[in-house]
Amino acid sequence: MSKITTELLLERAVPRSTRLRKIETLNLSKLQLKTGDLDPRLFSRLRHLQKLDLSDNLLDKFPNSLTLPDLRVLNCNNNKLEDVTALKQFPLLEELTYENNVYLTLNDDYKVMFLLENLRLLNGKDITKLANHVRRVNSRKLTSKVTAHWEKFFRDQLPEKYTAEQVKSVKKKFLKSVQTNVVYGPSSLSEFTRWRVKMIAEEFLSYSLGLELNSDTEPEEKTDENEEESTESSREAAEDVAQVCDVSSYICSVTVKPSKRKRNHSKSRAGNKRSKSQANTEEEAEDVSAEPLHFLQCHSKGNSREDFKTQLWSCVFEPVLDSGARKDPIVSSSRTVATCGGESVCLIDCETGTVLKKYKVATEEFFSVAWTTLTMVISDSRKKAHNILAAAGRRGIVKLIHVAADFCYGEIKAHKKPIATVCFSPTQETHLFTASYDKRIALWDIGIPDCDYNFKASQLLVLEAVSIPLRIALVPTCPEQYLLAGCEGGCFAWNIKLDKGQKSRPFEAIFQFPDHESMTTSHRVDGLAFLNDDVVVSKSSKPGCIYLWSWSRSFDTKGKECQRTVSAVILAELEWSTTDMSYLTLSTCPAKEYVFCGDEKGSVWMYNLSNYTTGWGSAKGKRSERRISPTQILKWPELHVNGEQPPEILVNNVVSDPAFTYLVVLTSVNITAIWKKS
Start and end of every Leucine-rich repeat and WD repeat-containing protein 1 LRR domain (predicted)? Predict the structure, then answer.
């Protein structure tokens, strides 16, 4: 038997080397090596090793800490291996062979396909599609069965208030029962199925029960990730690591205590069965009672519970795949919302607080997300509507994700500087607007992918801005003709009609707003949305100021001249925070005639404007003389995470679904809060 030494490693390097850290290929075959000969301390010095040949030895298993961070190719043919799970320590492994290991079976093949997310070749065969099925469909089916087994047979075995001993007892019974009774796939894979079922059940219990015991152990987040991507010009892998994952919800362990409100009072309680904190709110003028359902930390860098620095920026509800229902805004959205911040995009079920999917790009910071529905040709030549999510941020690249397939199918390198916001045309499903720090707004046709996800994107238009565009909105009555943008230097309008021929266009109008006793165009507009077909809501850098103004009456004063300064016809001002802090954006719920805006203290200001819109709609509608006060202010609850209060909380964005059932609040401290209207 040959003992492994530094000299032996240097001699068996291909080519021979003088230093361990320079070795990239190493041949240790036919040395009669046993598991004990693989010294982790010595192997830890092979930091750049990419190819390792251990064939024709006597290995029965792998040590758990070989520390080969760059290993891509591994040959273990003709050994005595009994278990493959230790191979998960080589996450970048792409090619693996272990033929003629008599104790390994088909179940072990499935285990390595699940554990090694980059694996392409197993024993010389391309397993990419099968591995994706194992990580996606198999995992999803088993998760559903495990959850159903708990709900049917074990959920009621725990009392409302339970002890650690009771949890331990139920957990033991559940793990035994679920491995015996949950069956899926052929009997030849029964060992793999039991292995996965146990893993899924333990993860399920960790977030369903462990958090309620205020455990210091972080619940393990399931990351079945797909790292395939394509660009608009080719289907080569992108330079970053893209990951689409099915995950369990990462819920803050919170305690909510009553807090004082300016216009309403709340009584709160915490610690119920589903880690929800509930508050009943009463209002002097009107009852808009809402309860906080969930507080999630699902955008944490490295899944760290200590991450209170990741900023959350954008969220939008997924449209319902029903062409008839989509015309009615009240039923045009599901309870699923896409959120973005830091390196990830998450899909969240607002009712349950479950993070349904998670998409990561390690080198990205996402600023904006938007949905569209494309009619795609599926494999049997039939056409079917599918929701596509676009996500963009600091790198100036738009990622296109087919959510139902758990697949990022392409990207568009839209700008060389960060993209602040994106939005799709409501009338042209493939038309996407991207607003960038390069002071340009681009219109793209993203195309429709075929059944193999081949697609072609093209740039249709470039709108030149004089300052960075922060928010964009298409005019509801003419979304194919005019676009509004709130920018660092004011509020602008462009003609976007495609039959004009001019591909690069300057702005057509800049709007001026009141500033003390005069009018000015020079101010930052960091909030912009339409309340209805005509009323625009915009927030400027002027403290405490949100304006409502008429698009048609303002733009009509421009006449036929090009690029004129026009005065916004102000309909009303909304009373808001006196902070001068920027980028706390607003949103609207047109169907319910609501405006929402967060502030620098974690509160959400809500304005029900249904009593005003009829008067504003008349041709002679006059400006409301007094500032309109908020209908209600939802105060941020006294929330404790692991016994401590988060730092200062800014509400970067707040969005409701079209029916105003759920209110999603995105903060500066990596917490997504979901409220539900009672």
Answer: 7-200
Please give the residue range of the domain that contains residue 166: 6-209
In whole numbers, what is the pLDDT of the chain averaged over residues?
82
CATH number of domain containing 95: 3.80.10.10
Decide: 98 and 83 in contact? Cβ < 8 Å: no
CA-wise closest residue to 373 among 392, 386, 357 = 386
Q: What is the pLDDT of residue 327?
A: 46
| CA-to-CA dists, residue 175 to 158, 198, 666, angstroms | 15, 6, 36
Task: Note whether 163 and 300 are same-domain residues.
Answer: no
Q: Which pLDDT band, with edges at 50, 70 and 90, does 136 fall under?
A: confident
The 10 Å CB-count burial string (b at 16+, else e) for 621-642 is beebeeebebbbbbbbbebbbe
> What's the angle, vertex CA 387, arms to CA 382 and CA 393, rounded to 5?
140
Question: Domain boundary at 191, 209, 227, which?
Answer: 209
Measure Cα distances from 508 to 471, 483, 493, 556 in Å: 17, 10, 6, 12
Domain count for the chain, please give it. 2
Give the whole-number percent of the chain exceeding pLDDT 70. Answer: 82
> Could you write out the DSSP letters of every residue in 411-464?
EEE--SS-EEEEEE-SS-TTEEEEEETTSEEEEEE-----TT-----EEEEEEE
**CA end-to-end distance (rounded Å), the chain:** 74
Q: Report residue 244 as tokens.
A: 């689409």
**Residue 245: its pLDDT value, please?**
42
H or E stretch covering 408: strand 407-413
Report the 10 Å Cβ neighbour count for 551: 24
DSSP letter assigned to residue 218? P
pLDDT digit string (tens) for 315-324? 999 998 764 4
Average pLDDT over residues 541-555: 86
Contact 598, 605 (CB under 8 A): yes
Instruction: Provide the residue type at 559 as one letter.
Output: G
Distance CA 266, CA 283 (A): 9
Predicted TM-score (pTM) of this structure: 0.62
Cα separation, 366 vs 313, in Å, equals 8
Asked whether 638 and 623 are in contact (CB, 8 A), the reply is no
Q: Is 498 exposed, middle or buried (0-12, 13-18, 19+ CB in 10 A)?
A: middle
In degrees rounded to 5, what are phi and psi of residue 408?
-85, 105
Q: Which of residues 176, 194, 209 is at a domain's end?
A: 209
Q: In the predicted model, is pLDDT for residue 311 greater than 50?
A: yes
The 10s digit of each residue's pLDDT in 527-543 is 999 999 999 999 986 76
Confidence at residue 621, expressed as pLDDT on a 0 to 100 scale: 59
282: buried, middle or exposed (CB in 10 Å: 19+, 13-18, 0-12)? Answer: middle
Edge-first strand order for the sheet with 525-530 is: 525-530, 535-540, 545-550, 569-575
Number of C-beta neighbours around residue 378 at 10 A? 11
Q: What is the CATH number of the domain that holds 670?
A: 2.130.10.10
Mention every residue, 6+ apart, whose C-beta is less than 8 A from residue 345. Answer: 338, 339, 358, 359, 360, 366, 369, 389, 391, 399, 401
Residue 301 lies in a domain: yes
Whether the Cβ atoms of residue 570 and residue 548 lie closer than 8 Å to each other = yes
| Residues 310, 417 share a domain | yes
Exposed / middle / buried, residue 274 (Cβ in 10 Å: 0-12, 13-18, 19+): exposed
